[in-house]
Amino acid sequence: MWSCRTVLTSTLVGLQVAALLAVLALTHFASQNVLLSYAEQLTERVAHDTTRFTENFLNPADDAAALSQRLAERAVVQTDNRSVLTRYFYEILRGRTDFAGIFYGARDGSFVYVSRDDTVEGATYRTKWIETDPVRSVQLDYFDDEFRRVSRRRDDTDTYDPRSRPWYVRASEKNEVVWTEPYIFFSSQRPGITVATPVLGEDGMTMRGAVGIDIEIGALSQFLDGLEVGKRGSAAIVSQTGDVIAHREASAILAVDAEGGQRFAKVAEIGDPALAQAVSSLPGGLESVTPGETRLTRFQALGESWRGAVRRLAGSRTPWVVVTYLPESDILGPIQRVRNIGLVVVAIVAAMTAIFSALLASALTNPIKALAAQASHISKGEFDDMPLPSMRMKELDETGQAMRRATSWLRDYRRENETLTGELREAGRVLERRVEERTEQLAHANRELEEANRNTSMLAHELDHRVKNLFAITSSLVSLAASHATTPQEVADEARGRINALARAHADTQGATESQLASIVKSVLEPYAGTDDFRINVVGDPLTVSRSNVTPIGLILYELATNAAKYGALGHPGGEVDVTWERSAGGVVTLVWAERSNTSAGDGDRSDTEPGGFGSIMLEAMAHRLDATVERDMTSAGLRMTLTMKDLEERREAPLHTQMPDPLLSSKRSAGRSKRSAERA
């Protein structure tokens, strides 16, 4: 039971801590929800801004390609004049630093290409002219910023044919502005895409060639590298096929292909687990995101929760998605620090409350403890006045005065009560002695009567059982003698001999002294020996049975023999009985009685050793005296009884008042055990 001081202090501290924790939890979770909502908005906004930047980055290529197409078709820029066309492409490149190159491929395989190239010292641009008429030739010229030639060379090994390139093929098929899939430019080995548009003839049907613009998309990775998405957040541009087109780690987006060249790395290859989880957590995959659609996602990566947003570019020709993602801890970090500070404040307030509560409890509980001590003395019969501390509270002072008056009254009352109690106690002791004496006499008489009744009942059952068995066995022995003798005299002599052996066996089981187990077995089976009608096998180690155990084991064997003579293997010619025993290293003796009869196990009358018969009750009683267990199995060959006994050679005295089992109750219990044994057999 807790003290008042403990309860008061714990209650005040608990209430104070509970209130502070409730306020802290409410503030924490409310702020957390707001910050997580802000995290979603942040990722969505970054995805939107990145998408807009990407679209703005790519749209000029559309415009430039369309403009070049219109100029070529209206002969403002003559496609068959290489110098004019080259100069025009150069002017476009000067104005658009995000363009890597611009070119025109004709239907006859000729090609004009202007690109940025600083591989030659002093050069900034490079032109490539491919002529097919009258013979194929490839000329490379390098120019400075003012488009003054720095170097020229021929490359007869170049087999480039614009008509076989994906941008030319798609432009001819679509007959409109087309975009290629991102790929690695052959010359610069940098990631990029190509925008191309067909140039039609005067009839508006025949394709004269195609104008194309190369755009290096490395600027997208630079843009992503400058984004601030929390402390550890990031963004990436991914194609719907899973290729990483742009990432703040620009070098990570390139991988080696099967031929030793370079290709775009897949999401799982870039070394960014958060990006891979963001993409895999999207229901339906990247292909399910429609142009201009934004989806929010939440996923687990690197052992913590992340928030992400996936937005697809609005243009149908660029099926790219922008993926932004950041860990929740970047957003929840400040509130977690506030929470930790709050927990420290709660601990300090709890400590101060505990100190204040302890002082208050001490002021209240000291007088109460003194009153409780006085009450404890009173409960023990000690009515002396005890000194009480100063009671500063009115209620406590009044309680102390009342306690003193009660103590004085109890002292006077006890003196009167002690006198009367002494007289009553003496009278009670006299009455208790007389009742105890009479109760003991009645209990002794009841025990003697119960013992006599049990002995009488057991004796009557045993006598009846023995007499019936003797008559049945005597009749069997006479019949056995008659089946072998040739004259009445031989019948009488053989029957008389076997009956005398039976009498000796009966006597050996009553009050015998210490004996060999083999002698007891042979004495019991002697009346059935000496004839070819039965076969009796006795095998076992030499074993001395103590005096106290001779009678119980003899009665068990005698009961089994008489039962075999009446119903089992010794009751019909050709029967066989095996009696074997062995002793284990621990002193446990196992004796097995096994019968084999030439008749069915179910033939004849009911065996006395079956549950319910007196023989079964006798077996259970004798086994109890031996502290043994009995297992009875009725096999197809006949009865098999296993008797397991402990320390058979040691002296074992039965208790003076050992109760023999009630025949009716024992028969019910034995029936259950025998039924289970029969089912196992």
Distance between the termini: 62 Å
Number of helical segments?
12
Structural class: alpha+beta
Coarse shape: elongated
Main sheet?
9 strands, antiparallel
Helix content range of the residues, please? Answer: 40-55%
Number of strands: 23
Q: Hey, roughly how much beta strand do the residues contain?
A: 15-25%
Low-pLDDT sequence parts: 651-681
Mean pLDDT: 78
Q: What Rg, in angstroms, do the CA atoms define?
A: 57 Å
Keyphrases for this structure?
681 residues; alpha+beta; 9-stranded antiparallel beta sheet; 5-stranded antiparallel beta sheet; 12 helices; disordered C terminus
Describe the structure.
The structure is a single chain. With 681 residues, the protein is of the alpha+beta class. It has helices spanning 4-73, 82-95, 166-174, 218-225, 273-280, 328-379, 394-484, 488-508, 517-525, 547-566, 614-625, 663-680, and strands at residues 99-106, 111-116, 125-131, 137-143, 149-154, 178-179, 183-184, 191-200, 207-216, 234-239, 244-247, 254-256, 262-264, 294-301, 304-312, 320-327, 515-516, 535-540, 544-545, 576-583, 588-596, 629-634, 639-646. Helix 6 crosses helix 7, helix 8 runs antiparallel to helix 9 (517-525) and helix 9 packs parallel to helix 10. The chain starts with a helix and ends with a helix.
